[in-house]
Amino acid sequence: MRAVGPLLGGLAALSLSMYAIAKEAPVLTYGDQESLTTTMAIVRGELGSGFSFYGQKRLMAACMQGMTGFWFSLAAPEQRKAHAENCLGHALSYAENTPLESLTWTVAARASFVLGDHDGLNRYLGYARRSAPNEQWVAGLRVNLAEDALAALSDINRLEHDQDLSLMVLSRKGISAIAGRYWANEGFRERITAVVEKMPNEDQRRFVSSVRRAAHN
């Protein structure tokens, strides 16, 4: 009889593991997050929310790719809408139990923007920044979204966008991306110049050097 307890515990653990594998499998087996197969699976609602952190991050990366990549510019409006709605649902479902995952909130903000929900855009973008204010890679995603949605940003998100721009200037990869945008967008040139002028002289010099390199590429 003493063996019954450990046996039941082992069976319960096995059942939980099999449930996790079954729930995670669609997310992990639909190609990589940049594939058209994955994007269309999201459109059709064939992918469930990620069970693990890795599965969720993979799903959120696929959602972000679908809403910002080449497919999005060519897809029919109803496909873009279905994709954004499903990504928003996955993001909010995961965030119920993991409210401090910045990529998830950034996806929710991007999906809200696609769906024309500016209140949701501003709310989730604020959550995204507060959950990871100093992670430069996700700050880059927030910057791209904020630039696309500039006219819809609240005053506080405009201010925090400037803070994200400052953070990007501090990293080599971030400053390269910003330097490229500098020459492509006149309005952005004015905004980033105002931000950089408030930064230390050394950061200003690095920014000017990066802009000059971008001009010759």
UniProtKB/TrEMBL annotation:
Keyword set, alphabetical order: Plasmid, Signal
Domain of life: Bacteria
Signal peptide (residue range): 1-22
Entry protein name: Sel1 repeat family protein
Protein source organism: Rhizobium rosettiformans
